[in-house]
């Protein structure tokens, strides 16, 4: 059986040979981390995303304490399409209970993830939020373990993720070229924070693919606002709230503007947006089409940028002291 698929722009991911949809499906909301999501809705959301041309799906055992992987697995299975029609990334090293980047744990972790996802392999296996582990362990133990998994065919490519941008250069400067295929940065390429921009030339030179997540600043740039656990400062939260209210007062959607802002940079291979309903998929895909056809609403963007100016590039601490 095949599902008629709409066309979405595909972008090359570093040197991997993969072509990922410009919008990627962030599956953390399927783990009910932003509010409860029923299985039937999770499956329908994955189906709608695929139908609309999204071919890239991102999850982790950490999201919803393994629930996201299970839900995504069900959604992908229900598509009943060839495995090569979609690209799946999951992660290792971060779990609900604790961080563990040991070779033993990550080697076991991929088997558990594959079982939950009902897959034989993933396309990308990321070390998840490496700033919470020892970066030297990531270099000397975790990545070599992932290379072994790559040779065994359990993952096609290796990635690293995290919040502080200097973790990427730390690791990439210490591993042989071609060892780490992609990086996943989050909350650093959106209207309120665009600091990832400075790192892109370095990553390009290394041939490392760039995935940028959380264009909506993990929910802050939405009308409903971020979740309770959001780590941003009260100033950043209230500035984002004011920006969302401003867009609403003009009859505009902040989510559309925020997503388009991230998508407009073609050096970023895929922008991962968390989605948990068919209507969110429809809205986000419509934003992509509108950007292609009409470009950005520059007037509203300038107004929102002015509101966010006092908190521009403000971030929050993440990880452990590496000294
Ligand atoms: P996000 O900025 O994409 O925001 C997600 C929130 O916005 C959710 O509550 C979602 O339901 C809501 N939303 C999405 N589209 C909407 C719309 N059109 N209207 C209203 N609300 C909408 O943040 P995120 O989910 O944290 O990030 C995206 C994905 O990137 C994650 O699901 C995950 O896969 C990945 N990610 C990875 C890391 C990491 O590896 N360290 C960190 C953050 C995110």
UniProtKB/TrEMBL annotation:
SUPFAM superfamilies per the UniProt record, alphabetical: NAD(P)-linked oxidoreductase
PANTHER family: GH17980P-RELATED (PTHR42686)
Coiled-coil residues: none
Domain NADP-dependent oxidoreductase: 23-290
CDD domains: AKR_galDH
Gene3D superfamilies, A to Z: NADP-dependent oxidoreductase domain
Record-linked InterPro entries: AKR, LGALDH-like, NAD(P)_OxRdtase_dom_sf, NADP_OxRdtase_dom
Name of the protein: NADP-dependent oxidoreductase domain-containing protein
Organism: Brassica rapa subsp. trilocularis
